[in-house]
Amino acid sequence: MQTPVASVACIKVEEGQSRPFDDLLAAEEPLEIRLVYGADRVVKPVTVTMRTPGNDFELAVGFLFTEGILQSWSDVKLIRYCSDSGKRTENNNVVKVEMQPQVTVDVSGLERNFYTTSSCGVCGKSSMDSVRRFCAPSDASFSIKSEMITRLPELLKSNQVVFKRTGGLHAAALVSSEGQLLLVREDVGRHNALDKIIGAAFSSGQTPLNNHILVLSGRISFELVQKAAMAGIGAIVAVGAPSSLAVDLAKSLNLTLIGFVRDQHFNVYCGADRIIF
Q: Of 33, 79, 107, 131, which has the fewest CB atoms closer than 10 Å, so is most exposed?
């Protein structure tokens, strides 16, 4: 079984003196997600993502859900690691999500583009229009106390188990509107950490997550807002900055977006009506 940490030999330098040192780093391995569907069991490779091993099934389910492929947990027949290659390492890096034979899968959804990479060069308007076709504006009606918002980053950090050992992971947390921590997931990719959160919630029948808050350890990208919106999350709180397109998308979907939460300070970019100051 793969672990989320790896020991790596290095040279540690302190006060001008060097010595051999074994450092713990966050593990990074590729994960290929394959979809199996139809009566004739078509196998379709969907994506390969670089991730920290752990909660791989949640990651696969969360990705397929936020891409609009999975509609209901009952549509899933089985999730398993691949055993085709004969190499154990490769098997642990390939996950098959098998759909029920009678379920119709719209694989064209895999060809649609949410324009999630910052270097894609596609205009913001096209990106926004693509997301709006799959995400309805949030109708979350909860309120958030401002003093609770300032406590959320420390709540997340104190529950980042692998980060404490390596110092090299992003994290996402799902919190109730009352501030109760429900889920935490870590990964080298911030989008993977969120997919793991959403996959866990989806597979346990908790979506849509209308009255929940997403807490992020870094910045807020367009892609993260898109994924949160697909899961019905009503508010996003992060220690870092949002991108301009992330703010535009959050506004159009009636999400509350809060960034730069540090000490007793934070910026509200949209959805301030949900906050009790």
A: 107
